[in-house]
Structure formats: C-alpha cells, structure tokens
C-alpha cells in the first residue's frame, strides 16, 4: 500500500513504568517473551504494505537503535524510503535538550522530514501500543467515509492511531507551531472538531497500551490465554521480531513447565508455572518461578523462589533467595541486579 506513510512516536518516557524505563523508552519494552512493543507498530505497517516509516525519538533511545537497526527485519531497509530514525538533534537544537511537550511539537521538530513524504496519507501511531491492527482496512474505511456524517462511538478507549492526508498534517503542524501549540488531542482534535471531518474505526481485538508496571504485568499475563494469543498473533497479519540467535530451550529431567510462554535459549531444571520467559533465562534445580515475567538472561539459582516478579535483563537471584510480590503489586527488579 504505497498510499500511506507511517510515523511512530517512540519518544515518551512513562514514569509509571519505574525501573523498566530507566534505560529504555516504553516503545522498546520487551513484551510477550520475544518481542518489543515497537515490533507491533512496525509489523502493523508492513502488513498493510507500508514500508516508508519515520520513528520520532528523543532521550534514552539507544535500546531502540540497537533493536530496530536498519529496519531489515520489517523489510524497511531500502535505498529509497524505508525506516528513518528521527532523533531531535538532527533538527532543532532546543528539542534535543528538553522533552517534547506533545505530538505536534514532536512533529514540528521533524518538519523537514514531513516535506519528503511521498504518500497521500499518513498514519500516526504510538510505539508502545501492542495490537494487531488491520491498517489496510482502516485506510480504506477512511477513504470511503470522507463525505459521510461523523461517527461518534461511545464507551470506547482511543488507541491513539490516526489516519489523515499528508497535506492536512503539514498544515496542522505549521499552524500549531506558529501558535506555540503542542498537544494533538487538545489543540487539534478538540479545538478543531467542528472544522475537521473526524471519523472513527472500532477495533475489537486485543490491545494494550503500556503505561504502568501494573498494566504491563496484567496485559502480559493475559497472553497465557490461548484465545488472546491467537487474536494478537493472527496468521494473516504476522508480527515480526528480531531473532534471539539462541539454541532451543532445554527442560531437564526434573524440570517442570506449566502454562507458560518460554522463548528460545532457556534452561529449565526447576519449576516454571504461569510465567513468561524471554531468551536465555536459567531456572536451576529446585528453583520455583510462578506468575513471573523474566527478561533476557535472568538466572534463578538453585532453590530460589520468585512469585509475581518482573526481572529486567541479566538479573541474578542467588541460591535459596525468595522474592514474593502480589498480583496487585508485582515486584520489579532492575537490570543487572544481583539479589
């Protein structure tokens, strides 16, 4: 679909994610055992035939740069177009120092890039939205309903995905910049609701916006439900991810793994129940992991116990240690910690 261009906002810091975003943005959060949140936005675009994408960045984006690289995984490494990473220091100096106040200010910061968009339409997406969206259908509905009455569904939560003409986006950015307006929701959607022809698309599938530790934990654990996994990872719109380049997971003779998602390269000789394990996790003999999310390289040593815990990358729980959280308040262990 060469009629649409993608812009992903991957710059926001979510304070409610605490230790999980000390060194990364919410868009680069690991999710579902082998993905990052941004994998879903990139895959949604690719599945709709969109291969020209700009990703707006700001601080703490080294993790994102390492993950997406040239965009080859999503077929966006191209001589013309493809994936463009848009850090603020490439544009206006002051926005490289202070955070963006909102989407319109972020777009003003990459205004020269907007001039280079060749497609007639643009889709604006959050990098931390985990969903499998039928963007091709959304665009077709947008085109079909341009002359119809406005549709205003009630009782729904916005996923902050917006499709509009490229010319309209440029004019809105210029107007907001001239007036020092920076909020897309307040200064565009609300202030101009009588001037713009607004339509909505109702999406009934699984969708998670990663905004807090509790929400991250709850929405991640929902993936243990087979029906939700099948909805999110539908075969006709596959989600692509960067490979872990590890051997198959090994479960020892005394190892137990029940109702869990386990990525490649793990070694399980203890017990894992109702948990999500990212690549390279080790659970030694006698150790027990229950209702946990363990990021890449976590090591749970012999006879240790974890319950309702999220570990960042390369955490080590020493032999015999116990960490117990609660469904309503999961414990987060920062990257590289030894406990």
Tag the structure with descriptive keywords.
5-stranded parallel beta sheet; 5-stranded mixed beta sheet; 339 residues; 21% strand; 24 strands; elongated; single chain
Q: Uncertain runs with pLDDT below 50, 5 residues or more?
A: none
Average pLDDT, rounded to a whole number, is 90
- Through-space gap between termini: 50 Å
Q: Report the structural category.
A: alpha/beta
* 3D shape: elongated
Total count of strands: 24
Number of helices: 9
- Spatial order of the strands forming the largest sheet: 5-4-1-6-8
How would you sum up this structure, described in words?
The chain contains 9 helices and 24 strands. A 5-stranded mixed beta sheet has the order 5-4-1-6-8. The protein has a 5-stranded parallel beta sheet with strand order 10-13-16-19-22, with no helix packed on it. A hairpin with a 3-residue loop joins strand 2 and strand 3. The longest helix has 13 residues. By secondary structure, it is α/β, with parallel strands linked by helices.
List the helices and strands and how they pair.
Elements (H helix, E strand, L loop, with lengths): L3 E6 L20 E2 L3 E2 H11 L5 E4 L5 H7 L14 E4 L16 H7 L1 H5 L5 E6 L2 E3 L3 H10 L17 E4 H13 L5 H7 L16 E3 L3 H9 L4 H7 L17 E2 L4 E3 L2 E2 L4 E2 L2 E3 L2 E2 L4 E2 L4 E3 L2 E2 L4 E2 L4 E3 L1 E3 L4 E2 L4 E3 L6 E3 L6
């Amino acid at each position: 679909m060469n009629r649409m261009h993608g812009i992903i906002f991957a710059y926001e810091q979510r304070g409610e994610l605490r230790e999980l975003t000390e060194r990364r943005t919410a868009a680069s959060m690991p999710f579902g055992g082998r993905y990052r949140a941004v994998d879903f936005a990139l895959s949604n675009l690719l599945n709709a035939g969109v291969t020209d994408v700009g990703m707006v960045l700001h601080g703490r984006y080294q993790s994102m740069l390492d993950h997406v690289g040239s965009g080859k995984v999503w077929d966006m490494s191209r001589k013309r177009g493809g994936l463009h990473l848009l850090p603020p220091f490439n544009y206006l100096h002051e926005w490289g120092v202070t955070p963006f106040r909102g989407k319109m200010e972020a777009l003003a910061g990459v205004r020269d890039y907007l001039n280079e968009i060749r497609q007639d339409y643009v889709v604006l997406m959050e990098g931390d939205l985990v969903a499998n969206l039928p963007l091709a259908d959304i665009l077709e509905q947008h085109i079909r309903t341009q002359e119809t009455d406005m549709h205003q569904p009630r009782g729904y939560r916005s996923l902050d995905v917006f499709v509009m003409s490229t010319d309209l986006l440029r004019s809105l950015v210029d107007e907001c910049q001239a007036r020092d307006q920076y909020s897309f929701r307040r200064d565009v959607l609300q202030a101009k609701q009588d001037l713009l022809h607004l339509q909505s698309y109702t999406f009934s599938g699984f969708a998670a916006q990663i905004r807090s530790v509790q929400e991250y934990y709850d929405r991640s654990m929902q993936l243990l439900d087979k029906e939700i996994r099948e909805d999110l990872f539908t075969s006709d719109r596959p989600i692509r991810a960067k490979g872990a380049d590890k051997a198959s997971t090994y479960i020892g003779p005394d190892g137990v793994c029940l109702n869990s998602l386990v990525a490649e390269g793990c070694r399980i000789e203890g017990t894992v129940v109702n948990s999500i394990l990212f690549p390279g996790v080790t659970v030694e003999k006698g150790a027990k992991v229950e209702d946990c999310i363990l990021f890449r390289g976590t090591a749970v040593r012999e006879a240790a116990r974890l319950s309702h815990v999220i570990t960042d990358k390369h955490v080590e729980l020493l032999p015999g240690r116990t960490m117990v959280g609660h469904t309503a308040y999961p414990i987060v262990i920062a990257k590289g910690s030894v406990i």
